[in-house]
Every structure is written in structure tokens, then in C-alpha cells.
Amino acid sequence: FGMLFMIFAVWWSVNLTYRHIMESFSPLIQIAQLLKQQKAYNLRFPQSDIKEFQELNGTFNQLLDEIQTWHTHLQNENNALSYQVQHDHLTQLPNRSYFYQVLCNLFEDPNQRQNLALVFIDNNNFKAINDQYGHLVGDEVLKEMSNRLKRHIRQNDFVARLAGDEFAIILRSISKVE
């Protein structure tokens, strides 16, 4: 009878310990799956009352801090590079490539295509400004021209610098030619 009691006590103790360990693993597995599926780098592993699990959780949390920092850094770098590729460095306006991309996207949508107006602007005698006053003054003229264009278009319109002294504006939601 004593032997049966010992076996039962050992079985019960092992079973209880096993359940406690599995309960401690469950949050680790859930968070690891979320990290894999959603790339939710802001999640952290919870506190554990088992010393070894707490050390493991702390190490994983430090790794997640580092991954989140690098992920944010890469996103910021990608955004900056994307901006540089799509914008003119002098005027900060969208460039020719980005302009054509937006224009093509608008023309692919039949609902928007019918309500668009396209305005091309060329600064007459701009070469004379560069020749007479220098390229620094010419650059300032282009900057001022881009600032004025940005200030005088509607919020949903799109202005871009195509090249040199050439600009283009896409006017959206036009209902009358006037």
C-alpha cells in the first residue's frame, strides 16, 4: 500500500510540474507565433515564476528590443530613400518619374480620368536668368516658383517639377473647364 501511495504521489507531482511547465511555455509559443505571423516586434515575453524561463524571456525581450529598433531604422531609411527617389532635391517637389507614375495611376481609373486637367508650365527665358545672374539665383527662382505653385493649388491637386524650368500640375475633381 505504501508503494502504491508513493507511485501515486510521484505521478501527481510529475503531472503537476509538467502542467506548470507547459503553462509557462504557452505564452512563449503564442508570442512567437504572433511575431512570425504579424511581425509584431512591440510584443514582449511575460514575467515567469520559473527562474530559467524568466532568463529566457529576458534574453528574448532584449532581442526583440534590438529587432524593433533595427526594423524602425530600416523603415525610416526606406521612407527617406523613397522620398529621395521620387522628389527633386532642389524644390522638394515630386520629380518627373513620380509625376508619370501618379498620372498613369489616375488614368487607369475611369472615374478619376474624366475629372482631370493637366497643366504644363514652362518658365520663359529661364536660361537668360541663369546666364545673366548665375545658377544660384536661377535655383532660387525655381524654389520660389515651386513654393508659389504649392501655395496656389488645392489640397488634392498634384504639382511636380519635370525638368529644368518645366513644371506640371494635375488638377483633380474638375467639373467645369473654366
Bulk shape: elongated
Uncertain stretches of 5 or more adjacent residues: none
Percent range for β-strand residues: 5-15%
What would the average pLDDT be, to the nearest integer?
A: 90
The number of helices is 6
Helicity range:
55-70%
Biggest sheet architecture: 3 strands, antiparallel
User: Count the strands?
Assistant: 3
**How do the strands line up in the largest sheet?**
1-3-2
| Category by helix and strand content | mainly alpha
**What distance separates the N and C termini?**
103 Å
Radius of gyration over C-alpha positions, nearest whole angstrom:
32 Å
Q: How would you spell out the order of helices and strands?
A: HHHHEHHEE
Topology:
Layout: H1 2-38, H2 51-86, H3 96-108, H4 110-113, E1 117-122, H5 126-133, H6 135-151, E2 158-163, E3 166-171
Antiparallel strand pairs: 1-3, 2-3
Helix pairs in contact: 5-6
